[in-house]
Automatic annotation (TrEMBL):
PANTHER family: 3-OXOACYL-[ACYL-CARRIER-PROTEIN] SYNTHASE, BETA-KETOACYL-[ACYL-CARRIER-PROTEIN] SYNTHASE III, CHLOROPLASTIC. It comes from Eiseniibacteriota bacterium. Keywords: Acyltransferase, Cytoplasm, Fatty acid biosynthesis, Fatty acid metabolism, Lipid biosynthesis, Lipid metabolism, Multifunctional enzyme, Transferase. InterPro entries: ACP_syn_III_C, ACP_syn_III_N, FabH, Thiolase-like. This is Beta-ketoacyl-[acyl-carrier-protein] synthase III. It holds the Pfam family ACP_syn_III_C. The active site is at 114, 255, 285. Catalyzes the condensation reaction of fatty acid synthesis by the addition to an acyl acceptor of two carbons from malonyl-ACP. Catalyzes the first condensation reaction which initiates fatty acid synthesis and may therefore play a role in governing the total rate of fatty acid production. Possesses both acetoacetyl-ACP synthase and acetyl transacylase activities. Its substrate specificity determines the biosynthesis of branched-chain and/or straight-chain of fatty acids. GO terms for molecular function: 3-oxoacyl-[acyl-carrier-protein] synthase activity; beta-ketoacyl-acyl-carrier-protein synthase III activity. Belongs to the thiolase-like superfamily. FabH family. One of its GO terms (biological process) is fatty acid biosynthetic process.
């Protein structure tokens, strides 16, 4: 029987500090009514100044390892998906390898915007099916509040900080595990969501800092339609590749960037509302962490259980999009 990857444990971590929509009205010209009606967001979590990505990644990873019944020493690879690493280099995955006490294993970061965790899960599946790894830790972690322009109301209300972790391992019962994956990109639209400075194109300087060019920049209304189309197309492709129909899927977990986008995908694909998981009201957009957080919470709420078919789909900077389809 062919080996597939299967999720053995999930975990999540959000910082203690909560920012409500009302808190944001004291920073920029906005309102609870605008944020809720345009995005579905009510609150988001924010790190303290001394906290970085790995500080959220570690507890989330430990929780996922515990559920998997594994120790850090059992891991063969660590893949961290993030656009807000502790440092540009070394990678946050190497920091995690050390802090978790893992062996001298494969460890690298993936930069694929909000689709990063999907890319990481597909890569882990390839490694496991190739026989190169048995147990892989995947972390989607973001501390977006550290790259937020707090004077720009069109972006600063949208993001939060979080880490989600999944431990995957081999499954050869021919039934459970990853049924299909799909990854895609379109760099031509990269300037709709990016961080202008801090890389080799525009290294840090007094000017770049003064102009807040190390902050996230987004043309949100240019991303809305592509987000709906690409996530819808991804769901269709994932099901086709697994020989299933959309109606066979028990739970849809979409990237939580905007409740209106999630609802538009559901409407376009004629998915019953109860099959679409939503937690954007609690965490806002945590980029690559959103779908792992959602899978973790859907499991805790009993909405995903053994045998459930789950479509986990994202869209983000790059542009990138895609998904993974599981039989839990
Ligand atoms: O996660 C990665 C991928 N990202 C996405 O998929 C995001 C996709 N885009 C979106 O979710 C939405 O476009 C946003 C939530 C970002 C914005 O919603 P929108 O309905 O597209 O609003 P808009 O940008 O077209 O702005 C509408 C109005 C503007 O005012 P005028 O020009 O109509 O007078 C904005 O100035 O809303 C104003 N506005 C705000 N008003 C109050 C923008 N931000 C705010 C705000 N509070 N925070």
């Amino acid at each position: 029987m062919a080996v597939r990857s299967r999720v053995l444990g999930t975990g999540m971590c959000v910082p203690d500090l909560i920012m409500t929509n009302d808190d944001l009205t004291r920073i920029v010209d906005t309102s609870d009514e605008w944020i809720v009606s345009r995005t579905g967001m009510k609150e988001r979590h924010r790190v303290r100044p001394d906290q970085a990505a790995s500080d959220l990644a570690i507890p989330a990873s430990r929780q996922a390892l515990e559920e998997a019944g594994l120790g850090a020493g059992d891991l063969d690879a660590i893949i961290v998906a993030t656009i807000t690493p502790d440092t540009i280099f070394p990678s946050t995955s190497c920091i995690l390898q050390d802090k978790l006490g893992a062996r001298h294993i494969t460890a690298f970061d993936v930069s694929a915007g909000c689709t990063g965790a999907i890319y990481a899960l597909a890569l882990a599946d390839m490694m496991i099916r190739a026989g190169d790894a048995r147990h892989v830790l995947i972390v989607g972690v973001e501390v977006l509040t550290k790259i937020t322009n707090w004077t720009d109301r069109s972006t600063c209300v949208l993001f939060g900080d979080a880490a989600g972790a999944m431990v995957v391992g081999p499954c050869d019962d021919g039934r459970h595990g990853m049924l299909s994956y799909y990854l895609a990109s379109d760099g031509a639209a990269g300037n709709t969501l990016f961080m202008p400075a801090g890389g080799s194109r525009l290294p840090a300087s007094h000017e770049t800092v003064d102009q807040r060019l190390h902050c996230l920049y987004m043309k949100g209304n240019e991303l809305f339609r592509p987000a709906v189309k690409m996530m819808s197309d991804s769901c269709i492709l994932l099901a086709e590749r697994a020989g299933l129909t959309l109606a066979d899927i028990d739970m849809y977990v979409f990237h939580q960037a905007n409740l209106r986008i999630i609802e538009a995908v559901g409407k376009r694909l004629e998915i019953p509302r109860e099959k679409v998981f939503v937690n954007i009201h609690k965490y806002a957009n945590t980029s690559t962490a959103t779908t792992i957080l959602a899978v973790h919470e859907a499991r805790r709420e009993g909405l995903i259980g053994s045998g459930s078919i789950v479509s986990q789909v994202a869209f983000g900077a790059g542009l990138t999009w895609g998904g993974v389809l599981w039989r839990w």
